[in-house]
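Record type: ASSEMBLY
Status: queued
Input:
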Amino acid sequence: AQSVAQPEDQVNVAEGNPLTVKCTYSVSGNPYLFWYVQYPNRGLQFLLKYITGDNLVKGSYGFEAEFNKSQTSFHLKKPSALVSDSALYFCAVRDMRNAGNNRKLIWGLGTSLAVNP
Amino acid sequence: SAVISQKPSRDICQRGTSLTIQCQVDSQVTMMFWYRQQPGQSLTLIATANQGSEATYESGFVIDKFPISRPNLTFSTLTVSNMSPEDSSIYLCSVEIRARGTDTQYFGPGTRLTVL
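Status: finished
Output:
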């Protein structure tokens, strides 16, 4: 069965420090992996995705994520956090083999990031 | 990406009534999705809506309670029928757009529903 785990409900970092939001996944085949961000009272915004190729993926707002196949992880990172990065972050996965109506995303429970000034 | 709008943005409804939520996208898309999200929590997929076919519902969701229309490639509606306070939630539509090798979901701003 496919699943996504975000082991931390909340992450707190000081502004200017590097941040990491963790995500691990389980799929039968090869994964497509996604990160989304949700600012307060807003819809979800796509940040970045991993399909194949380079393990380090760069996305919007200075975020990047590293795909690690051996650890089945796709952690979101940013070298220097901003207060405006404070939001809810979701990791999602889809099995590359799934097609048609079965290609829905499997979502993590979300991680609340608080960046303190 | 795509520009996706939802109407209404929020509503307060009485139990036993129904509300229809509209989702409009600025480009033609094959697959649209309807989600429910409790504030601060994860997303729960209600159904997948392909143009020209019946919506596919996830376990725990039925067509009588959440009928969906998909009349064309840019529009869909979700109706929350015979509402109860347990239906209070944020309802999100998303569309799937093919970009750089795979399909990516993009989301509307959501509809915040409160049922009294």
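Annotation: The interface with chain B takes residues 32, 34, 36, 42-46, 49, 51-52, 88, 90, 101, 103-105, 107-110, 112 of chain A (CB under 8 Å).
Annotation: The CA atoms of residues 36 and 46 of chain A lie 5 Å apart.
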